[in-house]
């Protein structure tokens, strides 16, 4: 079972005991939790209801720009192109003006709209009920003080975050199951609105029991819907009673400051999961409406005001991108959920305008941190919490003010951010895993489908629909991070019928331009395909958000099977985002498909970079090449180190050519494999050539050391296992070990090595 922190996080810290927020900013501590916003007072009393209007369909026709160069195009880079800041969100908001009222945000109708819930595809409705029913076999988890404190004792995040996630997942599942069960039980009854009245305006009887709202009294006391409602209210009250909504690893007010050992209830911190919790409670208001007892509704609104709206409006957190502060996935993840809380709960429009004012600045800061190519430097695993959260924020804004924000779907950068994930895809649930990323990042689902539709990427939409359809037939995983966001479930319910229709075309999806060869100049990542190969190359820089020391690394799959791999990242602990991060072996260059020089590895600084990057794609051959001399620090003794990777699509071969010179004594190339490399022939001694079988693929290695390509006499090629002592990595690779081939290839300061994969 994986905890929340193992699924998503933020960028590595640099201060002792730092939270995983990013590079130290040096900002002064700012007081959190100033004057309350007042949303809980007159907002509910304005009309007594929560808006349930029809969602705007924002899908756009046209093509998407995926930043892919044409055949035989050469691109030059120095590791990363400069990002030109812009303000498309703030511009759209300013130009449209604030005079018009907001339209209701209705990702899916509330439970009182029985027809909408009865119209759900049967398999999805059954799934919602099945998930919620499974929770009732277990007691509610408890968040105890000693579980919080464990992070500070031994760095473990897992136990606390598992319990934290289970509570929220259970509430979200209850909400969806209640909508389904209530609709099935009220077939033929008069619909009851969410304020406790019937559809024709007649007031319903007074509540006669703590859990029985006026809308619910006709249901049997033993009915499934009553059970789901009671369970949801239990969970809502547990959330309202929690001492803190942030997790221990994020309990700091200043970016990269040491975490405080205990939460301060008078100074709420807006971290990823505090904002998620606010969204979940607002979703409960939206879905349950008048079926929630009125005191519970008021309690939710008070907590949203105190813990979400007031700190968001009255304080500046690092992830907001103010004053040029670097942003990452936190920016859009938090912003999306604050917007969801503001527009799913009955918040006054004046407060909502202030929230939108701040949100558009944060979204623009996030967009300014991306290149025009849309590449996520945090890796494909963070697309779900970066690119898709950008989609979530834009979807809310475009729904509530389509006159201002619907035009943003036509922005080329936003289209490229949308399609980034499919361009990094190898097969279903298999991705190039640069940075803190697993090869298996999960099946695509409703958010990918809706984002693709919004920007006009029809091929990606078909792939997402097919993967979602496949996922319905699979057993639920045990990752507690899944399904804690009820907004995502409502979007899934809204799109389910359309996804089923698109999934029917998945067997023959036609051309999918988003999945071709791609070069991302902003990060130096190139993806080459053909001849049975999928090849990813990183020719950018180190020191980025969530990055490893892996400039020059190459990942190779043949026929969908791993040949040369990136180990990925283990379960997050306190060390993962601390000054000791790069003592973890998966972060180190010598445990990637890279060399070291007299044992000197790359460093975690942007100065370690690729230069002179050249990428060309052709029908018969694709090439990526770079000068990697500056990817190692000066003590490596490099004068020159160059790597070229050539994919011969006609021959079905991949050639990696490295040449190095300098003052070092020995250079050793390391090659990581998921399967044990089995020697072919005699690889013993100091032979210039060696060959290995890795699964169904052959690796042929030829090396030369010394001046003018003289015979190599610097030691044998060796193979060593790398035991996986991390449960997450064992699950990722379905093995208790990886393998490393060590190839000494340069003696006396110069040498070359060629690796041919066929």
UniProtKB/TrEMBL annotation:
Does the record's keyword annotation contain Lyase?
A: yes
Bias class Basic and acidic residues marks the residues at: 184-206
Where does the protein principally reside? periplasm
Q: Which GO terms describe its molecular function?
A: lyase activity
**One Pfam family from the record:** Hepar_II_III_C
Residues of the region (Disordered) are: 183-225
Highest taxon listed in the record's lineage: Bacteria
Gene3D superfamilies on file? 2.70.98.70, Chondroitin AC/alginate lyase (1.50.10.100)
Localization in the cell? Periplasm
Sorted UniProt keywords: Lyase, Periplasm, Signal
Write out the GO cellular component annotations: periplasmic space
Q: Where is the composition biased (Low complexity)?
A: 212-222
- What residues does the Heparinase II/III-like C-terminal domain cover? 518-660
Instruction: Write the protein's name.
Output: Heparinase II/III-like C-terminal domain-containing protein
């Amino acid at each position: 079972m994986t905890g929340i922190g193992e699924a998503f996080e933020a960028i590595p810290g640099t201060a002792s005991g730092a939270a995983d927020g990013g590079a130290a900013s040096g900002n002064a501590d700012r007081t959190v939790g100033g004057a309350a916003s007042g949303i809980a007072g007159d907002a509910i009393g304005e009309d007594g209801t929560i808006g349930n209007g029809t969602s705007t369909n924002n899908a756009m026709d046209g093509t998407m720009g995926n930043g892919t160069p044409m055949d035989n195009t050469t691109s030059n880079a120095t590791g990363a192109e400069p990002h030109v800041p812009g303000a498309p969100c703030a511009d759209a908001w300013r130009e449209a003006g604030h005079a018009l009222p907001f339209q209701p945000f209705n990702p899916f109708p509330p439970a009182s709209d029985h027809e909408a819930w009865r119209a759900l595809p049967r398999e999805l409705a059954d799934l919602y009920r099945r998930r919620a029913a499974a929770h009732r076999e277990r007691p509610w988890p408890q968040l105890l003080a000693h579980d919080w404190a464990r992070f500070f004792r031994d760095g473990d995040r897992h136990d606390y975050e598992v319990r934290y996630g289970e509570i929220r997942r259970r509430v979200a599942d209850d909400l969806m199951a209640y909508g389904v069960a209530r609709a099935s039980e009220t077939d033929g009854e008069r619909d009851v609105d969410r304020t406790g009245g019937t559809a024709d305006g007649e007031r319903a009887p007074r509540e006669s029991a703590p859990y029985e709202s006026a809308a619910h009294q006709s249901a049997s006391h033993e009915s499934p819907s009553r059970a789901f409602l009671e369970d949801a209210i239990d969970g809502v009250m547990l959330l309202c009673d929690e001492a803190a909504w942030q997790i221990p690893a994020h309990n700091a007010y200043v970016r990269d400051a040491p975490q405080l050992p205990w939460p301060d209830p008078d100074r709420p911190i807006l971290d990823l999961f505090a904002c998620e919790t606010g969204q979940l409670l607002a979703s409960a208001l939206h879905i349950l409406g008048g079926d929630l007892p009125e005191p519970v509704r008021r309690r939710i609104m008070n907590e949203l005001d105190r813990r979400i709206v007031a700190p968001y409006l009255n304080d500046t957190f690092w992830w907001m991108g103010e004053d040029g502060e670097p942003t990452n996935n936190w920016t859009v993840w938090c912003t999306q959920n604050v917007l969801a809380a503001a527009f799913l709960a009955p918040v006054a429009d004046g407060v909502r305008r202030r929230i939108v004012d701040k949100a558009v600045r944060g979204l623009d800061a996030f967009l300014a941190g991306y290149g025009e190519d849309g590449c996520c430097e945090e890796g494909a695993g963070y697309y779900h919490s970066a690119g898709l959260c950008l989609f979530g924020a834009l979807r809310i804004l475009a729904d509530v003010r389509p006159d201002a924000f619907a035009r943003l779907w036509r922005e080329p950068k936003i289209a490229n951010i949308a399609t980034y994930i499919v361009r990094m895809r190898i097969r279903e649930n298999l991705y190039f895993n640069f940075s803190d990323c697993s090869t298996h990042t999960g099946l695509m689902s409703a958010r990918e489908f809706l984002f693709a539709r919004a920007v006009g990427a029809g091929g990606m939409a078909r792939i997402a629909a097919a993967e979602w359809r496949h996922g319905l037939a699979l057993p639920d995983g045990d990752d507690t991070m899944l399904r804690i966001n009820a907004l995502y479930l409502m979007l899934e319910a809204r799109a389910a019928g359309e996804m089923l229709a698109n999934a029917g075309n998945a067997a023959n999806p036609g051309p999918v331009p988003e999945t071709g060869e791609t070069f991302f100049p902003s990060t130096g990542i190139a993806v080459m395909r053909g001849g049975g190969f999928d090849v990813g190359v990183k020719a950018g820089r180190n020191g980025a958000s969530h990055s490893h020391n892996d400039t020059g690394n190459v990942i190779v799959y043949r026929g969908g099977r791993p040949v040369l791999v990136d180990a990925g990242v283990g379960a997050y602990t306190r060390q993962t985002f601390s000054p000791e991060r790069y003592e973890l072996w998966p972060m180190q260059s010598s445990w990637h498909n890279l060399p070291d020089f007299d044992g000197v590895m790359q460093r975690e600084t942007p100065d370690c970079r690729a230069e002179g990057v050249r990428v060309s794609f052709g029908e018969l051959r694709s090439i990526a090449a770079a000068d990697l001399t500056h990817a190692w620090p000066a003590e490596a003794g490099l004068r020159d180190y160059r790597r070229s990777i050539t994919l011969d699509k006609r021959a079905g071969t991949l050639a990696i050519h490295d040449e190095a010179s300098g003052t070092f004594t020995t250079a050793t190339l390391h090659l990581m494999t998921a399967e044990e490399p089995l020697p072919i022939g005699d690889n013993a001694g100091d032979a210039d050539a060696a060959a290995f079988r890795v699964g169904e693929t052959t690796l042929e290695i030829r090396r030369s050391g010394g001046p003018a390509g003289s015979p190599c006499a610097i030691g044998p090629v060796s193979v060593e296992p790398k035991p996986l002592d991390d449960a997450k990595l064992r699950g990722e690779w379905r093995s208790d070990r990886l393998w490393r081939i060590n190839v000494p290839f340069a003696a006396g300061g110069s040498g070359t090595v060629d690796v041919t994969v066929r």
